[in-house]
Design brief:
single chain, FAD/NAD(P)-binding domain, 3 domains, five-stranded parallel beta sheet, 18 helices, globular
């Protein structure tokens, strides 16, 4: 859809980012959105390809191609192009409960699968999505719309991350009475305390949560289910329960000297910064400060990059990021064709800021920690790194990353942040309900099912799926809502 020749007539344009040296002065979002007129021009580039891989959400070579929510991208691109912004919002809201989140934090799987991007530049789908939802709030299209009829059924959702919120939103729209329990002091889960302000300012979350509250969803914070909230009480009070507690069990680094003072998990570092920022603009000093410190981040993913950007904003004297895997190619390889996810080197905002500030990319590829060094007081003072090489395992025949002999190197450090991913859900909630876990320590469900081994208890999001993207969490939340609704009513009219 869009203009038939738009992809030839117009060049791709995206929101400009503030210069790295300027944006590191605060924790605000730093992209300047396009005007409505510019957004309509970008929507015109959608080429009516007839094969919209952008909305497919297929698994290709172990990676997702296109949107897992099956967003009706060509349809709302056309509506933006023709200036029908309200209908564009209605089509977007049909598949996505939270475009205000995904348009900020999603890696844009849709754009990677865009047919226009096969031989040229992809349509700026993520930008168009952002334009639609922000215009909807400005014009009142996204106002509260409470359900007209209630079913009398009660559902408890444990966890207020994207999966829990999506499930709550869907079930409330259906007319069920939904209560969301959150152990932290603010609603949002991963969105609130796992993603830094620079990517998602927290008033954006509050805005949507307040609308859900006006539509009838009840939110209870400071409620740690499985500890201070008894599961027996919940099972008695509610017709169905959904567990959406995430996968917050961080993967540790086992190396000599791990007990040194000055080593933290990335999730604790990021969440403490956000909480202090929201509570006091960092004046309470209740966070792990990187100011003046030589920071080493173990992990080359999105969380590691967030640690880079946050450490720089604290005022770190240096930042180094260790990545076990080799550097991805700058150009797409022949064995990685479209519409597969492009396995190319990405320089994210934190790395851009490090380059601008320190003059070099902070990443050290094919490198890991062999030993943490500490002084006589037990305080971290450095670490020994080692290079890794791809080598065939003699026993299994598989290729593995192994230590390269003689590659040890000393690296100064007084703050280490471990961003090595997550192993699965925290076990105490599952234990409290008697929920079975699989070998990956995620909640076990039957294939294509969201119901656990405990009757009337369901699970969704990272808690069931394992660590994944916000967009996948939203999809799981929508699908578990459909499963719960069918279980309650004998049928469902909720869209997946």
């Amino acid at each position: 859809m869009g203009k038939p020749t738009g992809f030839m007539d117009y060049s791709r344009q995206t929101a400009e980012a503030a210069a790295p040296r300027e944006r590191i002065k605060n924790f605000n979002e730093f992209h300047i959105p396009l005007s409505k007129e510019e957004q309509q021009t970008q929507a015109a580039r959608c080429m009516a390809c007839g094969v919209p891989f952008c909305q497919s959400g297929m698994e290709l070579m172990g990676m997702t191609s296109g949107c897992p929510l099956h967003n009706l991208v060509p349809e709302w691109n056309d509506l933006v192009y023709t200036g029908n912004w309200e209908q564009a919002y209605n089509r977007l809201a049909k598949t996505n409960n939270f475009p205000e989140f995904t348009s900020r934090v999603c890696p844009a799987l849709c754009e990677a699968a865009c047919t226009c991007g096969h031989y040229g530049d992809a349509v700026s789908v993520k930008e168009n999505e952002h334009g639609i939802i922000e215009n909807a709030y400005e014009q009142g299209f996204a106002r509260p719309k409470p359900p007209k009829v209630r079913t009398g059924k009660k559902v408890a959702v444990i966890g207020s991350g994207p999966a829990g919120l999506a499930a709550a939103d869907q079930l409330n729209k259906r007319g069920h009475q939904v209560t969301v329990y959150e152990r932290e002091d603010r609603i949002g889960g991963l969105l609130m305390y796992g993603i830094p302000n620079m990517k998602l300012e927290k008033h954006v979350i509050d805005r949507k949560v307040n609308i859900m509250r006006e539509e009838g969803v009840e939110f209870i914070t400071g409620a740690n289910v499985g500890k201070d909230v008894k599961t027996a009480k919940l099972l008695k009070e509610y017709d169905r329960i959904i567990l959406a507690c995430g996968a917050k069990n961080p993967r540790d680094i086992k190396a000599p000297g791990r007990d040194a003072k000055g080593i933290y998990f990335a999730v604790d570092f990021l969440s403490a910064t956000t909480k202090s920022l929201l509570d006091s603009d960092l004046r309470d000093n209740k966070y792990i400060s990187a100011k003046g410190k030589k920071v080493v981040i173990i992990g080359g993913g999105d969380t590691g990059n967030d640690c880079v950007g946050t450490s720089i904003r604290h005022g770190a004297s240096s930042v180094t990021q260790l990545e076990m895997m080799p550097k991805a190619p700058d150009q797409r390889a022949d064995n990685n064709p479209w519409p597969q996810w492009p396995k190319v080197c990405k320089t994210d905002y934190g790395q851009e800021e490090a380059i601008a500030l320190f003059g070099h990319d902070p990443r050290m590829y094919q490198t890991t920690v062999k030993e943490f060094l500490k002084d006589k007081n037990g305080k971290l003072c450095g670490l020994i790194t080692v290079k890794l090489e791809n080598r065939q395992d003699e026993k299994t025949g598989r290729m593995v990353m192994a230590e390269a002999p003689g590659s040890e190197q000393k690296l100064e450090a007084d703050l280490v942040l471990i961003a090595a991913g997550f192993l699965g859900t925290e076990k105490y909630v599952a234990d409290a309900f008697g929920i079975a876990l699989n070998e990956r320590t995620n909640v076990k469900t039957e294939p294509e099912s969201y119901e656990t081994n405990v009757k009337h208890v369901f699970a969704a999001g990272d808690m069931r799926r394992g660590q994944s993207l916000v967009v996948w969490a939203i999809r799981e939340g929508r699908e578990v809502a459909r499963a719960v609704d069918e279980s309650l009513m004998g049928y469902t009219n909720l869209g997946a």
